[in-house]
Design a protein that fits this description.
This protein is mostly beta strands and 306 residues long. It has a single domain, classed as TolB, C-terminal domain (Neuraminidase). It has 2 helices and 24 strands. The chain has helices at residues 5-21, 33-40; strands at 51-58, 70-76, 80-85, 90-95, 100-106, 111-119, 122-129, 135-143, 149-157, 163-167, 170-174, 178-182, 188-193, 202-204, 210-215, 220-225, 230-235, 245-247, 253-257, 260-264, 270-275, 283-286, 291-296, 299-305. A hairpin with a 3-residue loop joins strand 11 and strand 12 (178-182). It is elongated. The termini are far apart.
């Protein structure tokens, strides 16, 4: 006992220290006033997004000389779909409520490559002619409330056009490695240098502050400012040969890849593969009915976003 006395005193001291250190500090989580204010105005924190295939629209016409080949589409007058049929050199207006062609116009060219909405009743299509001189033109078309289509003015350019989108009455036109910003008379206002290799497509965010580009060969998607500064990039081994892109009212980006549609955030991060069995290149979003319209040869597949 005498020999153990020193050890016992040491253990007693250590037990005293452990007792002091083992006292539990208690906490209570109290919601801040800032969170209270946020929650008062919040009706949704998160949700599941799906794409339900609801119908198909046949864009064929009795005037067709070939099987239709849908290159691009754009929504006009809220409930109409402007479809660029490259093989028949025509633009058709389809009423999305009935699935019927309301009007069409045949164009004197060799290729109808792209179409974009400029304002509620106006679209612009890009045309290519090989003879007598290799020439690329833009043609404005007006669509009435009843779905009737009529020609407007022609804007001439000499450079190959991959795709175009309209922002605040300006045309952002994709060429080889750059974007030309044109006014509605064809005057060049600005040039934006881009780093892409082939067959890009372009789309714009709902706030008109971000443009998105696909790169077919690099299998990537880029987001950039209107000045050309790259702010986001998405690249994935499964995102194969992206061609065709659209953006919904909330800023979600939908990209056509081989056999599927990828849904990305506005910052180009992956959300999900929305569909896995959808082919074709043309894709556009309609805010009037919250639907995706996807061109697949002569048919347009309709997906309702839920």
């Amino acid at each position: 006992m005498k020999r153990s006395k020193g050890e016992i005193e040491k253990f007693d001291s250590q037990f005293d220290m452990l007792y002091e250190d083992s006292k539990v500090q208690r906490y209570k989580l109290v919601q801040s006033t800032q969170t209270d204010e946020i929650m008062k105005n919040t009706t949704e924190i998160c949700r599941m997004i799906t794409a339900k295939h609801v119908s198909e629209i046949d864009v064929s016409s009795c005037k067709d000389k070939k099987k239709p080949c849908i290159k691009k589409m754009s929504v006009v007058q809220r409930h109409y779909l402007a479809v660029a049929d490259n093989d028949n050199k025509a633009v058709r207006i389809i009423d999305t409520r009935t699935g019927k062609v309301t009007s069409e116009i045949s164009l004197d060219c060799d290729s109808v490559w792209s179409v974009t909405n400029v304002k509620s009743d106006q679209i612009v299509v890009s045309l290519t002619s090989f003879e007598p001189d290799f020439q690329h033109n833009f043609l404005t078309l007006t669509v009435s409330a009843s779905g009737a289509i009529s020609k407007g003015n022609v804007i001439t350019t000499r450079r190959l056009i991959y795709d175009l989108v309209a922002i605040a009455q300006h045309l952002y036109v994709l060429h080889n490695n750059d974007i030309k910003v044109l006014d509605m008379h064809g005057n060049i206002l600005k040039t934006i240098i881009c780093d892409y290799t082939s067959f890009p497509s372009i789309a714009v965010s709902p706030d008109k502050k971000t443009i998105y580009l696909t790169d077919y060969d690099k299998s990537s998607v880029q987001g950039m400012t209107l000045e050309g500064k790259v702010i986001a990039t998405y690249k994935d081994k499964d995102l194969k040969r992206p061609w065709g892109m659209t953006v919904d009212n909330e800023g979600f980006v939908y990209v056509r890849s081989d056999g599927g549609i990828y849904q990305l955030t506005k910052n180009c991060t992956m959300i999900q593969v929305l569909t896995e069995d959808t082919y074709g290149t043309a894709i556009t979003y309609s805010g009037a009915d919250n639907r995706l319209y996807v061109g697949d040869d002569r048919k347009v597949k309709v997906y309702e976003l839920q």
